[in-house]
Protein 1
Amino acid sequence: MDETGELLAATVGRLLESHCTPAKLLEAERGIWAKSLWAELEAAGLTRALLPEAAGGAGLDPVAALTLVRAVGRHAAPAPLAETMMAGWLLAGAGIDVPDGPLTILASRTIGSLTLQPAGRAWHLTGSVRRVPWGRHAVAAAALVESAGETRVALVPASGWTVVPGANLALEPRDDLTLDAVIDSKFVAPAAAGTDGAALHRLGAAMRCLAMAGALETVLAMSIDYAQQRVQFGRPIGKFQAIQQNLAILAGQAVAAGAATDIAADAVASGLKLAEIAAAKARAGEAASIAAGIAHQVHGAIGFAQEHSLHFFTKRLWSWRDEFGNEAEWTLALGRLAAASGADRLWPDIIAA
């Protein structure tokens, strides 16, 4: 991480710390929108970190901008910062003005369920989309839709859909939307070159890698702290060899996920490279599964109690590992890439990546 990334991480860390207390996280699980948190993120310009200057952003290096998503994971922040950054990236690439407020995306796997047709001087978007992140709180969505043989981006206002609320395991909103929106032609444009459903899926996978890496850092710190404080048989449980071994495994998984995430961030900055993002998502998902299990073994039953904070992070790890493709999907993608390249290219491609 360069100096800019470190400064951004420190800034957002201080901001999130006061808004991501256990009480606030429990409120979010009950469906209360974190209005003050979002207002501060937006006032600081953090929601536009991935945008170029021409689109109202700061023109940051993408790797530096993506450190914000890792910070969201580190604090289990109940806000759609990653989704807003993704929507902004999609809209800016198509030359559409990016609005203020929380945004979401109508992701690659839902393109086939949407229909975009000309309607005079406007466009008519219809269809249904399942499990949209933060759909009920978004002021608009960036949709990627195939229309007349061309991939188009549409900025869809929240007034253009109805919501059936849903949630992932972490009780983050994952809502089903039914769309029937008439959209002004200035909010519909051809997608940027190379931007298709697969590219958006890769960006989402990289975002979840970043969030998981941040959450794993916190899970590791919490587990070490608890093992040093919890006394059993007259000494801290961290003094027992079995606990020490498990903590070492947990630390190794957290470090591996962090390294994979660094690769994913670089892959986003250099054109959403498939091999790097596939490997990173698969490895981060594996780390999430192993580390979350060990953390709860170390904490015992208290880790599941509402009064303790561990479950806020492990529930997100279990949720995020499956969103935008799980380990099986991305490992299969890697296998297909290797098979298509041929045996002679396997090692050179690994070295190049």
Protein 2
Amino acid sequence: MRSVVEIARLTFLEARMRKMLWAIVLLGIAFLALYAIGFHLIYADLRGHITGGAAQLLEPTNFFVLAGLYAINFLVVMLAVLTSVDTIAGEIASGAIQTIVTKPLRRWHVVAGKWLGLALMLAVFTTVMCAALMLIVKLEADYTARNPVEAVGLIVLEGLVVLTLSILGGTRLSTLTNGVVVFMLYGLAFIAGWIEQIGSMMRSEAAVNIGIIVSLLMPSEAMWKRAAYLLQPPFLRELGLDATPFGAASAPSEAMVVYAILYTALALFLAVKEFSRRDL
């Protein structure tokens, strides 16, 4: 286990040496600053036009919370791919991996250590960004989204699904091919999520089933849909105001969350197995 932790530490150091961590921090701060300015201006304008009291501000405020978190969710997915797509495939192509595996380390230590380092970095980024955005809204509008802990946890899980799949692909595919495959799978899941949501609103069982089947192939988007559903106040669903571009008219079940966890664990197991069998 000590070897896995050491590889995770080296993964952090490598990200810092490549100035990746600084880029993540600075761009994250820029995003939050832009969101804070934009939300302040929009919310001030809303208060000037809506005369029905704080209750009428809840729906637009929730909309902007979901919009901001959806943007963070997208950044998390991009970060998961861009930080991991080259971590094994690139080192195999350059021959750098041989300087690691020739040492008294088992191959599974390398895969597990890199996954752990990148997963921790991704989890910290997601948690800090989501918490900061919700704090901005709280200070400006005195609004707290429902189930914030569960929602952030689901966004983290979505990132881990994509991250692990990217690491798995890197054990067999080139960097470019791996990136294309992962992004295409994410795109399929994104479209399937929309098909399922529209099918739910139109009561089309066939459309819903198509969305569910594709979600089993790539459960990333399902995690965001459930997170969005948990964040929305129940009265919006009762009034039919939950069908927004960033919300969810229906939520994937808790069974899908369990499936996503098992999916991630299986992908990591296969990554370890494939890397152990690969001729370097």
